[in-house]
Amino acid sequence: MFAVIKTGGKQYKVAKDDVFNVEKIVAEEGAEIEFDQVLMLGGEGEPVVGAPLVEGARVKAEVVAQTRGPKVITFKKRRRKHSSARKKGHRQHLTRVRIKEIIAN
Asked: What is the pTM of this model?
């Protein structure tokens, strides 16, 4: 069985025991969290598509770690103008989660 969930402005296709990174969620490592924005359920038989969400469906997950993503460098430069360059780095805060259970309703 799989589900499509929405968190942090992004959509993820998840199944039981999947481990992946999402936008930062405020929770301690080892804490259990619940995603209630389930857009679709599938697996056995016909898929159930929400309009926009599937009624009563939720996904339980466990926080594995609070991490940061790879460094992204932004560089802006204007041609033929002296000392007009800007370099900046950014690392996004991420939460690593493991899916424990998909509850249909």
From this structure: 0.82
